């Protein structure tokens, strides 16, 4: 693998990524979670990873307008041919450094409890799942049933930075 370079997204990156995420997520139909607006309005807090001229990873997130000390990561993905080589960690750590310098002290990310890779990744990255009232053990992880809609269970991960 040649050297991976991180840069800010531009709007033109949307086409490739929206066409890649279903494959990158193992065939789950998730591209509707990545509309173009992420590449229009959140480029200042998001990241693209490139290997040469090929996009091999991305992170889209933002600093909460309502909670200025909190940032939210909406989606992270790495090319299946570049997994478990530290790229997801690199994207998260760059995001942490970036938002910490702007006053953020806490980062939140939400995932489906059945996405075992995502759950393991977030735990490895120092995130803890909310386990208070309203959570149940789903797929082995505390999660909120019907969090986003009926049947859309979610783990609410957070960590201090
Ligand atoms: C989750 C994902 C981004 C991880 O990317 P990656 O480049 O493989 O991650 P890294 O190599 O940087 O791994 C970071 C940590 O997560 C752990 N991890 C990554 N994949 C894992 C897996 N499948 N099982 C267990 N742990 C895993 C690593 O062990 C590593 O821990 P360490 O640094 O303490 O050794 C990648 O698997 C992916 O894109 N999956 C599909 C999309 C998805 O589910 N995104 C998350 C929900 S938005």
Overview of this protein structure:
By secondary structure, the protein is of the alpha+beta class. It has five helices and nine strands, in the order E-H-H-H-E-E-E-H-E-H-E-E-E-E. It has helices at residues 13-18, 21-24, 38-41, 87-100, 116-124, and strands at 4-7, 47-51, 54-63, 70-78, 106-111, 128-129, 136-138, 141-143, 155-160. The strands form two sheets. A seven-stranded mixed β-sheet has the order 1-2-3-4-5-9-6. The chain has a two-stranded antiparallel sheet with strand order 7-8. A hairpin with a 6-residue loop joins strand 3 and strand 4. The two termini are 30 Å apart. The model has no long low-confidence stretch (mean pLDDT 97). The site of coenzyme A has 20 residues, from strand 4, helix 4 and helix 5. Residues 24-25, 75-78, 83-89, 111, 115, 117-118, 120-121, 124 line the site of coenzyme A.
E-strand count: 9
User: Largest sheet, order of strands side by side?
Assistant: 1-2-3-4-5-9-6
Beta percentage is 25-35%
Please give the share of residues in helix: 10-25%
Q: What's the N-to-C terminus distance?
A: 30 Å
Overall pLDDT: 97
Q: Shape from CA axes? A: globular
How many distinct helices? 5
* Radius of gyration computed on alpha carbons: 15 Å
Small molecules in complex = coenzyme A
Low-confidence stretches: none
H and E order = EHHHEEEHEHEEEE
- Helix/strand structural class: alpha+beta
Question: Main beta sheet, described?
Answer: 7 strands, mixed
């Amino acid at each position: 693998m040649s050297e991976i370079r991180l840069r800010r997204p531009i709007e033109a990156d949307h086409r490739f990524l929206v066409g890649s995420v279903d494959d990158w997520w193992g065939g789950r139909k998730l591209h509707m979670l990545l509309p173009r607006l992420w590449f229009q309005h959140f480029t200042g807090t998001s990241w693209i990873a490139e290997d040469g001229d090929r996009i091999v990873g991305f992170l889209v997130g933002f600093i909460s307008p309502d909670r200025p000390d909190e940032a939210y990561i909406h989606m992270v993905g790495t090319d299946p041919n570049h997994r478990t080589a530290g790229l997801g960690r690199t994207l998260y750590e760059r995001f942490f450094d970036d938002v910490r310098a702007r006053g953020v002290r806490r980062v939140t990310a939400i995932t489906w409890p059945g996405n075992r890779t995502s759950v393991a990744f977030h735990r490895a990255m120092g995130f803890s799942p909310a386990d208070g009232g309203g959570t149940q053990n789903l797929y082995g992880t505390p999660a909120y049933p019907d969090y986003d809609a009926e049947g859309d269970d979610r783990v609410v991960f957070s960590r201090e930075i």
